[in-house]
Amino acid sequence: MGEVLFETKGVGKTYGSNTVLHDIDMKIHSGEVIGLIGENGAGKSTLMKLISGVETPSMGEMFYMGKPYVATSIINANKQGIGMVFQEQSLVANLTVAQNIYLGREKKYSKAGLVNWAEMNKDAKKALERVDIKLEPGKKVRDIDMATREMVEIAKVLDVVTEAAEGHAIILLDEPTTVLSDDEIQEMYVQIRKMKAAGNGIVFISHHLDEILAITDTIYVFKDGEETAVFPTAEANIDVLYEKMVGRATTGEFYVEAQQSVPSDKVVLEVDDLSLFGVFNHISFKLHEGEVLGLAGLDGSGAEDVCNCLVGQVAPTEGRILIEGKEVRFGNSYQARKAGILSVPKDRRDEGMVSILSIEDNITISSWEHMKSKGLLSGKKIRQTALKWIKEAGIKCTGPKERISQLSGGNAQKVIFARVLESGCKVLILNHPTRGVDVGAKQEIYRLVREMTAAGHAIIVIGDTLDECLGLSSNVIVFRDGLISGSFDCPVDFKPSQQEVVHFMM
Amino acid sequence: MNNKRRDLIKKMTVSQQFVTQAEDNAKMDKVRRYAPLILLVIMTAIGGISQKNFFSWANIVNIMFQMSIPLVISVGLSFVLLLGSIDLSIEGNMGFAGSLVAFLVVNNSNSNNFGIFGVLIAILIGLAVGTVVGFLHTKGRIASFIVSYAVGCIMTGAAVLIYRGTPIQVKDPMFIAISQGRLFGIPYITLISFAVFIIGAIIMNYTAFGRAVFAIGDNEAAAASTGINITRTKIKVYALCGCTAAIAGVLQCMRLKLGQSNLGLNQMFPVVTAIVLGGGSVSGGKGGSLQTFVGVLIYTELANWLTLMGVDTNLKKVIQGIIIIIAVTLTVEHNRKTVVK
Amino acid sequence: MKQKKFSLSNLSQYMVVISIVLVFLVFTILNPTFISAYSLQNLLVEVSPLILLAGGLSFIIFTGGIDLGSGAMVSATCVISGLYVSRFGNWIIPIMVVIGVLLGMLNGVIVTKLKIPSFIVTLCTQNLWAFIALYFCPNGSVAVGMEYRKEITWMTSKIAGIPIIFLFAVVVVILLYIFQQYTPSGRAIFAVGANIRSTRLAGVDTDKAQIMAFVVSGACSSLAGALYAYKQKSAVPTIGDALTLSAIASIALGGTSMAGGRGSVLRTTIGVITITAITSGLNMMGVDPLWKDIIIGVILIVAVYLNSDTKGRDIIVK
Asked: What predicted TM-score, i.e. pTM, was given to this entire model?
């Protein structure tokens, strides 16, 4: 390993009052591959965004080649020699490979405003050869397969950064192996080793620990926005990594476990051999009255997609969904609600809140048909319902007519909880119910969940953290690569440890 | 999907399934891409069999002449549709440019004689109007259909104001010469149109700007991340569209030797139909000059058929509408997370 | 708490009230006969069909959509009512409502089920309406036969000085207001315009809400067509040509956001009265009517600009 190329000192990021990344110290050496691991929301992606120029840190400093480093945008970072291969591919499908590699940098090839594609293709060919792929650079991206696209993306970033910083560039790879087969992954390793040999510094994120152990030199473990451990890969083993990743469990009191109800025998929802091609396969489980069923799994494991199917957002390709023994099918969330399933969506701003409407409209939107008197909507009923929930859920606001967009994250989330409870649906799906919510509001939401089960609702929860998932649930199913990899009973006082569960996740 | 393949897919892991799916989509995409070309070949073949003079030079020239004005309009409009936006001001813009140019060159209602400068002024004003549309759309964050619709209405009104009731007759010798001149039997107006189209094709295919438009239409966020100035590119697109609409207006005025707001009437819709027929998408990112050309050709042949069958103008428009809806239904990407309002 | 500042977005809230007061004030000062009983009665007759058209169209705009063919729909329905009032008498009014519902439903179903943006769909279907209008009236307007005039004059007669046609429009506006305010579908229409994704996930039938908006608009456009037939006492195939612009401009002037989710039919009604007052006021002052489209177009752009959320989050506007 060579000199230090890049360094972060006490870097952190806050959104409003919510700290998502805190006090990160990281050193990237020349010729080093750093592995970054952690659960969803541990802060890996946030750190990558800060380094790659997508966002700016709220605290701390970064240094590149010994000088203070500030990146105002992705391009700005690229020009300094830092580039990132994003998880969602950022290639433009209707342009050629060469045009993609040089998108935004055509000037070099233009004469009198006209671009010389032949010359660009020649250079693109060289850029592609650098990562050992033989590809006609005049081909449109939409005509090449996913694995090759990934390599093109790497070639593009490599070309940008080496142009700016030959031999001391920083390359960030955010889950580059997701769409690759085993052979293709080996090929990717070869490329990473080549970049490394050239003196560049590389950060590699993956959910697969075997990949991390195979290719990296140093491993950083993140947990809840903090750096919990750093070791040389040679000294790491899987068990230690698991342990460091999950951190210390919170007390049962935090999750109001004393009120955790024992599920009855009555099956409310049954999922039978459900598959969605390319996303998840052969998922079966039963949900009982009064049960909180946790679905654990990393991003892309299929857990969230199962929920999307259950609320009618996507139609499964195979399998059945049964509610109280009767098979149901739905093409949209309206039909799902009519069948008795409603969700608290993951993305509160874009999927939960109907931002420019009032609190009362947001609370009653899923139950307007019950708010009638004499055939017409009753403003009085709507207001009373809203007032009832404002009191019961402790929503801090100026009144039911206030716009929901004026509320803090926690209060807005309580409005959405009020909505699903008012809807009269039996099965409630809570998708990241406490995302971006402060600690106080979190506890109130947990209390609400307990009340919901006590009232006989059946709940599926995808926790913001594994800790939360285990704390809230009476049963947990673990997803990995689109399949159920394990399941755990989580009775009060006998919850499985996070280490046990995380084994099945990675 | 046959059963064997289905079983095979069932046994795959999800990531293998995902890759298979993506590759299947790419294949379907290819089919869709060649469909317009196949359609054109079939239509031409039927035309050749059913009409005996179909491949005669006279008929080819005739088809080229009919393509002229739509081709000019299509230059700007295909850029706009590539963005996934629309420009409804084209007809107003055309009418205004045509009326204005008639007013500026030698005519029957005043003593103006600006000649070629009149043409330039009309085109520059078209460009300016397009710029205003683009500016209001991007900086004002107003949906393009509403801005361009309002501007279109304003331009139509302004066109009528120029001649106040009686359309102006053009007496300019240059206009008369161009409208009557032919080279190898091809009218000058057609040659000019094809030249404009070729320039448009060069801009689309050989400039960074052209590529930026493709990139924005396909993936605006990704385009922004590579440093493309989205706002400026979009304004340029609308400026170009205003410019070509004005050129079309001027050519229309030359053809009819008349300046009136009606010059633009019903000119835009056929071009939208043509572009969509050629495989362009109204949600952006798909299409290109070749596709547009194929589309305009298909449309012209189709229009000829309908005329031969004695379908009247209004019914023709209804048929165009149905074609657009069918073509858009076939090309719209349902899995895209765009909001359809 | 943030201090409330006087900003452009606040201005847009009061825009319609300010402008109607201003318009009446200015025109009365320039020409005192502007508020004479006679010209006011004329104004009320003039605004009535447009109130229906714009009132119905508002609902499509509440969903964030548009109907570029609503004027053409007025032409088609004006022609049908003008030609068939002789056969059906005043039953033509309910018949037109039914026809309007069907025409609107066609738009709505294409928009929601085929997932095509409404401006494209209505750009296409407007040709169909224009075709219907010209198919029935290929040679221009056809007057209602003298023997049937008796049956339809009631619409333009007056009760206590107020034209019945205006009272008719008022009744429809009240019905629209009830629909907007006091029915689940009415509320759902706003929710769809505010955020269709959240609304869908809240288990609201967004397709139905969107189709309802088109249906209501269709019924209102159709009624407007019938009113024009009663008012002009003839079937006029070109009556709707300039109406789409006036209707959209009235809605925008009323402070309804073109992006959807905000607005009210009452605001639209005031917007219609303001716009009509402007055009008839300019007319009385001898301004060339050729300026009309230009003025309304400019009003539309300014009003939309004031209503639009220029700061907004990073939503891609197409």
From this structure: 0.89
Average pLDDT, chain C: 90
Nearest-CA distance from A95 to chain B in Å?
A: 7
**Could you read off the pLDDT of A69-101 as tens digits, one per residue?**
998 888 889 889 999 988 767 888 889 999 999
What is the ipTM for the molecules in this complex? 0.89
In sequence order, the 6+-apart residues with CB closer than 8 A to the CB of A333 are A311, A312, A313, A342, A343, C200, C201, C202, C203, C204
Instruction: Determine, yes or no, domain membership for C264.
Output: no
The answer to whether domain A4-246 has CATH 3.40.50.300 is yes
CB contact under 8 A, C195 and A311: no
From A311, A354, A379, residue closest to C199, measured CB to CB: A354
Q: What is the pLDDT of residues B304-332, one digit of tens each?
A: 888 888 888 889 889 989 988 888 888 76
Tell which of C110, C122, C125, C127 to mutate to test the B interface (max B CBs under 10 Å): C127
A376 vs C: CB within 8 A: yes
Say if CB A221 and CB A230 are below 8 A apart: yes
Residue C89 lies in a domain: yes
Domain that holds residue C161: 46-239
Is A93's Cβ below 8 Å from some Cβ in B?
A: yes
End-to-end CA distance of chain B: 33
Is C225 contained in some domain?
yes
Q: Give one DSSP letter per residue of B188-247, joined into a string.
A: HHHHHHHHHHHHHHHHHHHSHHHHHHHHHHH-HHHHHHTT--HHHHHHHHHHHHHHHHHH
Q: Give SS3 for A83.
A: strand
Q: With an 8 Å Cβ cutoff, are C318 and B147 in contact?
A: no
Q: Is residue C22 part of a domain?
A: no
The interaxial angle of helices B230-256 and B90-104, nearest 10 deg, is 50
Q: Determine whether the interchain pair B17/A278 forms a contact, defined as Cβ–Cβ distance below 8 Å.
A: yes
From chain C, the residues in CB contact with A355 under 8 A are 194-195, 198
C-alpha distances out from residue A442 to A38, A246, A283, C74, C297, Å: 22, 20, 30, 55, 51
What is the domain count for chain C?
Answer: 1
Distance CA A144, CA A137 (A): 11
A252-340+425-505, what's its fold?
A: Rossmann fold (3.40.50)
Q: Which of A73, A114, A280 sits opposite B206 (nearest CB)?
A: A114
Which uninterrupted H or E stretch holds A269? strand A267-276
Band (C315; pLDDT cuts 50, 70, 90): low
- A250 — pLDDT class (breaks 50, 70, 90): low
Domain(s) of CATH 3.40.50.300: residues in chain A: 4-246, 252-340+425-505
Residue B211 to residue A110, Cβ atoms within 8 A: no
Asked whether the predicted pLDDT for residue B339 surpasses 50, the reply is no
pLDDT at residue A1, as a whole number: 66
Secondary element (H or E) of residue B183: strand B182-183
Structure-block tokens of residue B238: 């609308």
- pLDDT, one tens digit per residue, over B61-114 is 999 999 999 999 999 999 999 998 999 999 999 999 999 999 999 999 888 899
Question: What pLDDT does residue A442 have?
Answer: 85
Instruction: Give A123's pLDDT tier (boundaries 50, 70, 90).
Output: very high
Contact map slice: B 110-139 vs A, CB within 8 A: none
Whole-angstrom Cα distance, residue B144 to residue B84?
10
CA distance B204 to chain A (A): 10
A313 CB within 8 Å of a chain C CB: yes
B chain contacts of residue A275, beta-carbon cutoff 8 Å: 10
